[in-house]
Fold these 4 entries.
Entry 1:
Amino acid sequence: MSGTNSTATTQSGAPISSLPEAQDVAATDGVLGVFSGKAQIAKPADIVNAGMPTDVVRTTDLNEALSGSALNQYVAQAATHAAASDASADRSETAAGASAASSALAAQTGAQVATIAAGVNADADRAQNGADSAQATAAGAGAILAQNTALASMVANNPVQFTNKGSWDASKNSPALTSGTGAEGDFYSVTVPGETSLDGVTDWELLDGAWFHNGVWNNLKKAGYPTIAQRFQGLLGVIAEGVTLNSRTSGAFTIKDALGYILTAIDGLGNISTAGKQLLLGSTLLDCNAKGQFLFGMRDAMGNLAWGVRADGSPAFPIGAARADLGPISVASNDNPNGVIVKDKNGFVLLDTSGYYAIKTGDFTAEEIAERDRMQLARSAATMAGPGDMLRARPVWGISISIATGQSEMMGYVSLPALSLTQPYDNITFGEDPRGFDFGIDSAAWTPRGGDPSPKPLVAVNVDQTTYETLDLPASLVYKPATVDVAVPTVTSGDPQIQITTTDTSIDFTTGFSVGQTIQCAGFTGTAAVNNETGGEWYTHYITITALSAQSITGTCDGVWYSWTPVAVAGATGVSIAPLRITKDFGEQQSIAALNFYRGMQLAFRGLPADASRRLALLSCCVSGTTIEQLSKGYSIPLFDRISQSFTIAKSQCDGLNTTSGCFLIEFCQGGSNTDTDYATYYPLLAQYFADVIAEAKEKFGQTKDPFIEIVPISGMNLPSTGIMDVCRAQVDYVLATPGAYIPTVGYPAIDYGPHYSSNGERYVGAMRAKVRHRVITQGLAWKPLIMEQATLRGRTVMLDCHVPYPPIRSLKVWRGQEPVLYDTLGFAAYDTVTNAKLGIASVSIVGETQIEIVLSQEPTNPIWVTYGDSSCDGSGNIFDSDPAVSSDLYEWVEGNGAPYSENIADYIGKPYQLCNPMINYAIQSVKG
């Protein structure tokens, strides 16, 4: 029999491991034998003193039973008892039992017991027969042991399997073992202790293990216990405290009381019958009470009836039971007013005899919400556990390329100064910038920045928007005069002016500033701090220099959306004046941060510090301020051709390096320029655009698999207000319907400059994209973003079911410009589906891990659109999941490098970006509930 997963059985084969009080008792063909359970055998004194007439076996510790003096005493007593036995059949059977005890002992002590048994009085026929039986049993036990294969987990600190070779006499070295010679894993149980020398070991005690491992014999102390102690059996039964455990019945096993009446029996098929009327299974009581209402009932640990079966076979529940779940439906009583409600598995009412639901005008009960929450949690978990897309191209080439497409949000517009100035891994681009040189709305071809298309480390570059020349920005420049005075010049037309002067002659503004440059101030107090300093919700209050001297600056009070009025100050101290890079140039690209973070996770997933044989590259063919029509193939200005041109250059460079190449990903963020495009127009244009880009990639690289498509739907201040979020909704619907396409995130949570992101904001969005990209492409797992899935309208209440990747959902402040905000509606809005009229919202609440409740100001007459993050909420919202992921990049702010003082946030600086998933901007129509 196998040494693992063995189960002790009765003579008829039924398992006994579940018997009450039988954990220390098991069955075998003798009083002593191979025992499964605790290592215990019969105590000799108990057997002898009992006179052996009733086949009683009591147990004690194995070490005590096997001690030398106890053994000798037991054998002598057994022999004496056998010799003096009566010749009747009953006494013969008793003597045989004593001899069998010797037999089983021999199974554990081998030749030693056989030798002792052989010395029993030769005139006692029954004793001699017992000795012969002992020898036969020992041989049989050895054969069984030789067949066993025990797991090495039975032996301390041994993680491998071993082969059980049976017993070994360490006194006589039988069978003969030789130092350094054996088969790996051979294992012998010591049945006779001794001092045979094996590989330097001379002390072998009873039931030690001799194990051949790594070319030598090892002594595993007492390792023979789990090998020897497999079975233990009484001849006719085992008595414990007056209760007899017996297998010699018509069934497989019985339990009898002291008078011999059967209490419990198990037949050969495992069926259990009991004389009692109750069966306790854990804390559940199965009760057959013929005198009560039920023929059969189930009670809890407190005795309360859960349910039962009447004499006619009908199921019933006790009075006051709240509900019954019957597979796909639930039946519940309802006290408002009295009645019965039948619901389907999703919690929707199928039958209501009370009329309560028919007259409801709003509220969802806590029970309903909890049930919807459970169902949605299950759906979300099933979605995330599903298989990923294994049919798209993956980065398997020598150089695998991701191409960024779209408009300004994807290409680092106004995201200055760039932060990703060093390459942390081995990512490359072709030339000095993945955007190439000229990326305006013109007929220029894609050409490498710097003229040399050879692979170079992928880093962010600051580029002038007019000349496309690389900007050489100073690392840091800040003036801190001892005192400053602020005057407000009189202007007759145009924006207000401000004049800042200082008497601090150590300051020379002309060494770092120039006319036309934008600058910012910090350190003012009072009303001057509110007006004269850069910051505010929409990145406002900066100065465009119009005149300059060593200790004087004059400029226009400018802002993103409007001008501002300065405050005059005399002798202000602690003021700082630094550049502000609000110019419409290009800097940090989110696609660079995304590829860097992705590369780090990819290498870690593969357990590599680097892999020069398989690198990642980035190309960009984004064009600021373009519509989907302008970006598409066949437009009068051939912007689309830059994709083909960049692919051709990349392929040529890879061929020159004698390495394979291909495109594994198309990145896309666009839509802000399609301000008057409806859903029906945008969707097919988007689908055709990707079909054309995929075709170019497959043609230029000769690859057979389509690349993945990674879309960041349009959001924030760039979200068009056409229809019911038409452009954004078309982008989301395209992804949901297209294999290989996925949405990693949206951009509205980032710190922004209105329609565009700050440098830290770009890197945050890039990290969000990389996190999901790793899951989808590297790990091959399913993904769906946090999104509304169903809106159930009842009266004036809307209940939203949301897919939540990492529950629970929660509300967090989100950046709107340079200030974090929490919207009253958390970003939700509602519209009549017939008139498109906006409806009032009284409240929005998170009521579950996946559930959001919206209460309208009044009950609508038609179904409604529910939107999240539409233009009425600045394309933003406050709903996030609980994903604990963080970025590898850290938040950076350096005074004087051009970043605004409003981004000097102590709680952020030097810490990774938090990457919990924001809800995706989207709109769905309600269903009646």
Note: Residues 446 and 568 are 51 Å apart (CA to CA).
Entry 2:
Amino acid sequence: MKKLPHSKYYWIVLLVLVLLINWIAGLVPFRADLTAEGRYTLSKPARQLLTGLNEPVSVDVLLSGEMPAGFRKLANSTNDLLQEFKSAGKTNFRFRFIKPGEGLNDSSKAILYDSLANLGLNPTNIKAQTKEGEGQEERLVFPGAVITHKGRTTAIDLLQGVSSEGGLESLNKAEALLEYKFANAIRQLNQDTVPLIGYLVGNGEPESYQVYDLIENVLKKNYAFRILPIDSVPIIPPVFDALIVAKPSIAFGDDQKLKIDQYVMQGGKMLWMIDNLYAEMDSLQRSQADFIAFDRGLQLEDLLFKYGVRINQDLLQDLNADKIPSVIGSVGGKPQIQLLPWPYFPLLSNYSGHPVAKNMDYVLSQFPNSIDTVEAKGIRKNILLSSSIDTRLLATPARVSWQSIETEDDLKTFNQGNKPVAVLLEGSFSSLYANRATAEERAALQAAGQPFNTSSPENKMIVIADGDIALNAVTQNEGPLPMGMNSYTKYQYANRDFIQNCIEYLVDESGILETRGKDFTLRLLDKKKMEAAKTKWQLINILVPVLLIILFGLVYQWWRKHRYQGKTEK
């Protein structure tokens, strides 16, 4: 072995060893994620999904060619993630980066762009460098991907659900959501049966164009869907995986509440969106004056209290609010109108870090109430959405007016801190009717094929103290808008994503939604320190490589001289 380095076959043996090591590394891949937040480590649900694929998944990422730095960074992060997906999915996962429309004529490009728009991918017009010295060109970038599996196709928008106004922070959130978006899209394509979601009606719930986006673009698109009139059935059929109660306006009777209660006791999931007070924008616009928000009298307080929450009889106002046209003065007898934040339309956010709403843009609410959690044995509570710290509560009777802030003193009253508006409840729920249901009511349930239970198995529900959160505006020119879209600014908040996540968390058992909980720490350089130490680091970057080369040359000459000088003396 000692003579091997001096043998003429030394380089052949070394080459064989290198090839052998590379071959073994290919058979047993090893990756080390050295980031504190596990940025490059797939979550267990995503890895299980990919390793369980029995048919190929093809992904076309539409981020190729010259792009601004932000899009290039997003493309690089997507490539890193999909490399991990390929490592887990092996031959059943393949991906590529393409530039949409490259090599096509104008008419073919137009057809392709329309197809992408129908899939929900909207382009962004950017200026990109063509070739060095040739200036810039305008082109359309589709920050998304098209995924095909089992003959089915879907698309994901890599920027959907995050603020378009947050710069690096928004881009960082988009990168944190990449794993969830790709894994969830693959999961939806892979499943052969989908949960059945019911939309409960019979107590004044909207059935008009106000719920068009909810029904057509959320429920029908992702789930089996049925409208369920509560008075048309003796019990709520157990075939429904979850029920939605959206902005009821008529009081619930005990027979109706018993049906809902026993549905929950059988393991049924609930998404409640409740307005306790009557406060509508239409009333303000018609009267052009103040009005008093009053109790709707829904009679749901005892049921929700038993499950662990109380929706308060108040209106929540927040300085962090959406904008509406407001009259700020008059010139020549004509009113001067400007878009200003209106405190009755708070922009809600997530502060708990729960995956349902983490890394998400603001969620728009309208005349929300505050919500409190109360003692309920065995129930775990998580706040999903809250107002900002600049909040105040108007107790019933609450006066609603166009000019709710008139003085500096009014501003000082917005000091009540974050107030919960949406709460997740998990655990074994106790029945409100455990000691209240009559023998006749129990017998009627038994006759309909449903046993009377006093507690539920492990279950979950979400309660939102705002009935408008899943409703959409309707305009004369455009018809139904997406939920969460301001009809004046056309800015779309993350209402649709939030509602989708709520339903998914309730009915999906795969755990894919947990991947939304990833933290991507944004590690920015300190600009002041950079400027102060600029010269030092420039010298280090220039001199250190040169010194290392000189040092290597000196050591090599010394070693060579020492080695061959010894041979000459022998």
Note: The chain has a mean pLDDT of 85.
Entry 3:
Amino acid sequence: MLDSTVPTQGNQSDQAVPFQQLLEAQSGLILLISPHLTLIGASDAYLREAFLTREHIMGRHLFDVFPDNPNTPELTSSASLRASIERAIATRKPDKMDVMRYDIQDPGKAGGFFERYWTSTNTPVYNSQGELVCILHETKNISDDLKTKAQLEESRVKEQAALAQAEQQRLRLDRFFDQAPAACAMLEGPTFIYRVINSSYYQLFPGRELLDLPLFEALPELRHQPVYDIIHEVYKTGVTYEGKEVLIPVARYEGQPAEDIYWNFIYQALLDAEGKVNGILIFALDVTAFVAARQQVESSAASLHSMNLGLEEVIKRRTFELEQAQAEAERQSKRLQSLFMSAPAAICILNGSDLVYELVNPAYAAFFPERQLLGKPILKALPEIEGNPVYKTFRDVYETGRTHEEKEMYIPFARPDGEMEDRYFRYILQARYNEQNQIDGVVVFALEVTEQVQARKAVEASEQQLQKANKEFGIANQQLIYINKDLDNFIYTASHDLKAPISNIEMLMSELLFELSEGSLANPEVRRIFNMIQGSVFRFRKTIASLTEISKLQKEELNRQEHVVVTEVVREVELDLEKMIAEYGAQIETDVADCATMAFSEKNLRSILYNLLSNGIKYSHPDRKPQVKVSCGQVNGFQVLQVKDNGLGLAPAQKNKLFTMFKRFHDHVEGSGVGLYMVKRIVENAGGRIEVESELGVGTTFSVYFSK
């Protein structure tokens, strides 16, 4: 079609464009094409755009210079350009082409092409005789514009998708927040206004108005409690606060008195777009029942312990059994407390009909530390539950949407070593709904209550044992009363009946002394035997006196107390021992400022100090002067009186027999062996105790514990 209107070669020469240089200088992208579709001119701008030189294109056929891209056979770029030129010639009018992809060759890579998009206009040029001279091809590279538009469109699509996804996540989060079995609330601003409250939080305070009210206006009883300062500190610093078993008295109904409620709770700061704190997220759990269970265990343990006080050797076996029961109860209490000290809630989300773990928080993962949960169906992660009723509850919740709650479900699980382990759980299962309000998963809120169950069983066992022990203690107590009466009668009878024979022996010794001649008395052997008999009589009298003191001690009123000034008693004892102190060259150091007064019998306190001080001086080391220090302090609810010396000391085997009646370890010092026995009885009768630390050759420290 083009060739039919092309002038002769001579005419073409006559019609040569006189404005060649003007064409080349044009800023637009222009090609000059002959009727035979050879290139006869081009602007410099076009050559730069197409990576061409004038020498390379002049006189060459249009489609030899601009071939189709063989890598895109589906495109018909050259055919479209040819059709446009033919339309322009046929109509003798400019033909404007729509946006067209026409790739250009890459001069730096053989067979390579650059992707390009163009808008072009083909205009036929005629001479004065109406003959076609050439076609003016004007074009514009719009590749960058199209890419920009495409990127903008892609960005817009992604933005819309992101917004839709964000909205879906928001709806899902709202559902999860509201359906969460734990109590959650969002507080806004520095006055902590309730803006969002889930149903579990409402259940904590069913009779109170909360929404859109400041926290301390809705619950004014909290204003003077520690949580007031805690939540303000979280809002000020942004640092999360976690409370464990905190007692917060609060009223569940308006106008009702506050109840003592124990809480596990988390205060977490909410941040605005600039990262500044603008609110508080509350996560709370009422653990009053758990605390009460533990306190019951501790109370039972305390009762068992108190029954042990004051019992003698005859009931040590029963005491040991009760101590074992107490230790077991305390161990159960510690295990239960360990559970409460974990995260406030264990939460997981199971997705789809296979109940695949989609989310597992650390508290839930801690239930199964050796197992991989995320991404696994529940039966693969926890195969033990397939035959357990718990799995049926999961299926029922997923299929019906009805919430299910278990207070104490028995579920045995395999330990890492393969052994089955009995475990108990309290849990709530709720269906999760997608944006189409269809069930697409299950939300699990769980607490392991194995320790609580075991603690309850321990309480029941302890109560039974306590009842049994009460009965046995009554019998043992009666036996001790009879034994003490018999002991008192024996001591009284022995001390009374032995006085007469001793007096007779002394009288006979006097008569014998009178009857012996002076020669006999001068005999050293006679004198030695006579002195030995007198020493034996003296010691016998001293033993009888000690027995009398013990008998008096048994009959004394144990609860008779008076406010005693300790320094005065120490000073009086030092005066009583003045002769002994001087004889041994002893040094007495006193520091009782921490115990100015003591609620105790003054007579008994003087007896305790006299025995301990005199022992510290009498049993001094031969290589050094005796040094005795008397001090007093406060230790765990007791006033502790200490007497420390640098004397002979004791071997470890001797310490266990130290407080035995008539027991002595050093015969070179006079004594009856009842002093320390009496000290121990005085202290224990008053509800205290005495302890001793000693090192052979170094010294001894007595610590006397007096109840306040």
Note: The longest helix spans residues 450-515.
Entry 4:
Amino acid sequence: MNTITLADLHLLNIQTIRDLEANTINEIPHANLIKKAGKATANLAKQLIKKKALPALILAGPGNNGGDACATAAELAKDGYSVIVILCADPEKYSADGKKAFDKALSRKVIFKNSDALDDLLKLDFSIIIDGLFGIGLKRTISGSYEKVINGVNQLAHKKQIFILSIDVPSGLNADTGTLVTDDADKNVAVKADATITFIANKPGLHTADGKDYAGEVIVNDLGIQSPVTEESKLLLNHASRFNFQLPERKQNSHKGSYGEVIVIGGDKGMLGASVLAARTALYSGAGKVNVSLLHPAIDYDTLHPEIMYKDAQHLQMKEEIVVIGPGMGHSDIAKTILSKALSSEISLVIDADALNLIAANKELNDLLMGRTASSILTPHPLEAARLLHISAKEVQQDRCKAALLLADKFKCVVVLKGSGTIITDPEGRLRINTTGNPGLATGGSGDVLAGLCGALLAQGLNSFETAQLAVWLHGAAADTLVEAGVGPIGMIASELPEAIRHCLNAFVDNQRLAN
């Protein structure tokens, strides 16, 4: 996507998409969405094809997705492209528009094969593979000939570096949750696309959980259907181009107190590094003053960053600072006492790591968090979220959006559910799925960095939901910046992130200033 629009960022679930389709067909009986989808897919495919002399391979399944695939084949053939379709359906069972698309493809000399020809076809080379097996309606585990076709084309594409374009959603992926559609834990079958052209509106499952690995780049085509897109939409992708807030202007006539104070509480014996990472990030992210309050005060000076002050957590007075609590905190009685004190205070908190685990395991701490009136941001990874909800991490990952919403509602907090396509939500039900980041963030300490970044943005005046959106976006953007510079994703370490965050934060502020 070259230009990001609100329509690209707006996310609709499967049921809403179905309702919009039905309303369109009722209001415009001859809308022929299948023909429109085929034309849109073919137009994109023509931009992607590098070797026109090679045939395009299209997979056509049952249902409207198969109709879309046949319409795509007909459009490509009309423009002189050689097309082979593996037809995994009975075209007589297609809808009227789907059957028209099949007949049109036949009339234009598209070659149709069934799955029995797969082994011979996999010996050939193709200009592109277009996946039109299953769409958003898939509910069962893929097996039999469908499984064989999907596994075969995935292997072929990987071996010969053939671009795979999926129609609407990669076959086998749940468009709502981003998980693979299966009722068999041993079977994970889905098309691994390089790009997905998705219709009517963008879909949450393309951007979280397994979605980012299977959907590739997502291109939205509304097929002329007007979806309910507004600035107040609750379900959106998290992208800086649409942030309707900004950091307060840094005036010449200001001082360190103008940009807030962050206290990081944690650092039990053997885990001091977590607090140091959070504190250094808060410093690089613009907090005016940064303190570390250690449960095990083994150090009182940071040789790399002497700007950070170190104190004993047991003597801490919490007043008007922003507190980041949990990194390397451990599970001692002292940790519980200090956490209880923080939860009972009226200061803004960023609650991470061991603090989350203590809350999950202790009813008194749980109740204190539920009863807070001051703002709190929770930053769990899936296992920490599972402990807080008293379910399994697998259940959290099966529907990440639902889990994040449950947490936000339970604790009346802003929640950042970390992972692929990090979820940001609040008690009002506003939900964002993050667009930045890469596997380089899958390393020890990156969560501590995010917590420190949240603390710094809160200290500079953003509210909790704004802070979470910007912090998560910057955290991922910093990792992307490092990869672009040749650092990672393999071997990227958390301590490399703070300077990159500083760069991305300043660029973000400059871009906003120019835009205004």
Note: The chain is about 40% helix and 15% strand.
